[in-house]
Amino acid sequence: MSKTEQQLREIDAIAVEVLDVSTRQDAKEKAGSRREAYGKALDEVRDVAGRSAAGELLEWVQEQIRTEETFPTSREVRKQGAKICRSMDHSIPDDSWLGA
Q1: Whole domain around residue 13: which residue ranges?
Q2: Are 98 and 45 in contact (CB under 8 A)?
Q3: Model pLDDT, residue 35
Q4: Would 94 be classed as within a structural domain?
Q5: Whole-prediction pTM value?
Q6: Which of 11, 28, 52, 77 has the fewest other C-beta atoms within 10 Å?
Q7: 60 domain-assigned
């Protein structure tokens, strides 16, 4: 299992814990296309700033689910991913999905 898939499973587990879903499969379905965006953001952050930055983004997504009791939008996740990379002194390449 890839690191990204493992992190997505962690997001699913938080969704089961916090949101009105009973299984990880239900969490996947409720997240819909956002889940794919989370995976892409985690990969991009890992590529730009490393594993610890991707871990920080994962923690942010989980905290958003806990506090807001909903999934953050893909735009919010991209913005937060870019913010994390920049806070670690990494620039976002022009062709990066994080800059979209």
Answers
A1: 3-89
A2: yes
A3: 86
A4: no
A5: 0.88
A6: 52
A7: yes
Which whole-number Å values give the CA distances from 59 to 8, 84, 93, 95, in the listed order?
Answer: 11, 12, 23, 25
Q: What pLDDT, on the 0 to 100 scale, is given for residue 19?
A: 79
Would you say 45 and 81 are in contact if contact means Cβ atoms under 8 Å apart?
yes
Counting the structural domains of the chain, the total is 1
AA letter at 75:
R
Asked whether residue 67 is assigned to any structural domain, the reply reads yes
Q: Ramachandran region of residue 60, left (φ > 0), alpha (ψ -120 to 50) or beta?
A: alpha
Which of 39, 37, 29 has the alpha carbon at shortest distance from 3? 39
HSE value, Cβ hemisphere, 13 Å, CA-based, for 40? 16
Per-residue model confidence as pLDDT tens for the chain (100 residues): 799 989 998 988 888 888 777 766 777 777 777 888 999 999 999 999 999 999 999 999 999 999 998 889 999 999 999 999 999 999 998 888 898 6
Give, in degrees to the nearest 5, the angle at Cα 65 between 83 and 56.
Answer: 35
Residue of 41, 89, 46, 88 lying closest to 61 (CA atoms): 41
